[in-house]
Amino acid sequence: MISSFVITGFLGVGKTTMLTNSVKQYFPDKKIAIVVNEFGDIGVDSKVLTNVYSEVLEISEGCICCQLAEEFESGVSEIIEKYDPEIIFVETSGASEPFPIFLSLQNLGISVEGVICVVDSKNFDAYKENSTAQYQLGGSNIIVMNKTDLISDEEAMAVEAEIREVKEKFDIKNTMTGKPVFKNYVLHRAEQGLVNKEVFEGIYRVEELIELALDHKHLDHTVKDSLTQKVAYFTTDIKFQDVDDILEKLPKNIYRVKGVVSVEDVHNAIFVNYAFGDVSFEELPEYDGKSLLIFIGENIDKDVAELCDASDTLSLPRFSI
Ligand SMILES: Nc1nc2c(ncn2[C@@H]2O[C@H](COP(=O)(O)OP(=O)(O)OP(=O)(O)O)[C@@H](O)[C@H]2O)c(=O)[nH]1
Ligand SMILES: [Mg+2]
Q1: Which of 62, 122, 145, 180 could form a disulfide with 150 if both were Cys (CB 3.0 to 4.6 A apart)?
Q2: What is the Cα–Cα distance from 24 to 147, expressed in whole angstroms?
């Protein structure tokens, strides 16, 4: 039987980082397929992940939990037929709930070994009221407190207590019996997505799904949280500094920026990865597409338009999402 893990967690918490750092390291001899879904219709994670894994399936439009169950299931079936993987890892979009994906995998006869919710320990306070984030914690049985390098031990203890509180409050229940779907959960700490191997060893196998909550009601979270994204393209040649300047001017409600840009002063294209004020850059040797930045946050349309007006290089397409 094929095993799988679902990796969930809010925008920019470190899901892809976990896939590139931990998973690759712990399963060198296994055939691994990655399914990645990104918020919005332009995916950049898959470009990063294809540098590491040979089989990456990108489910790119919308969010898998809302509209794409069919596309998800047929995509996964295809990857199984073509590649015959031993383990499938599904990275859900930061804006989707894990439970419907869990159900889809079960539908396909794939064993779900765990639903891992990655948490940004430094920024948990900034997003813990978000209903999607709460359902992501509630719908998982392994919690990984990532980015612990950015906080002290005392802060980590405080965040852990907050996480447990949210987890317990939003723990997903069987709607028929009122009992939690997962019997228990475990919490690990990590830096750069590097977790202990036991997280993946199936020892926390989802033993007992008491009874699937068939009438699980989907939360219309994208509307409720007003999470939106805007894609802006670079219209002229730019320097590395231009990208930095744009990121410095971001208002607080834009908390996630991803993109790929070619700049004059660096040989390879650069993958830009910004989350809650922190930014990292990575070279992407294979990329020769357009230079773009994807802005994600709450009610951001006006802010992105202003950023584009203030910058000589950025512009929104006439029909933007
Ligand atoms: N300091 C620090 N930065 C981290 C850590 N883990 C990830 N990051 C950084 O956080 C940013 C977001 O990481 P990703 O792995 O892309 O996050 P993600 O959850 O896949 O993001 P989405 O798919 O967009 O929701 C990147 O700039 C990473 O380099 C960590 O443990 N410590
Ligand atoms: Mg990602």
Answers
A1: 122
A2: 19
Burial of 73 (0-12, 13-18, 19+ CB in 10 A): middle
Q: Is 14 left (phi over 0), alpha (psi -120 to 50) or beta?
A: left
Residue 308 lies in a domain: yes
Q: Could you read off the pLDDT of 215-236 as tens digits, one per residue? A: 445 555 544 566 778 888 888 8
**CA 184 to CA 286: how far, in whole Å?**
43
The range of the structural domain enclosing residue 205 comes to 3-221
Instruction: Report if residue 320 sits inside a domain.
Output: no
Pair 36, 116 in one domain: yes
Strands (E), 51-105: 55-59, 87-91
* Ligand 2 midpoint to CA 39 (Å): 9
Q: Distance, CA 45 to ligand 2 centroid (Å)?
A: 5
> Considering its fold, how many domains does the chain have in total?
2
Average pLDDT, the chain: 83
Is 258 part of any domain?
yes
pLDDT average, residue stretch 53-82: 76
CATH number of the domain bearing residue 57: 3.40.50.300
Per-residue pLDDT averaged across 276-293, rounded?
84
Assigned domain for 152 exists: yes
At 33 the pLDDT is 92
147 lines ligand 1 (CB under 6 A): yes
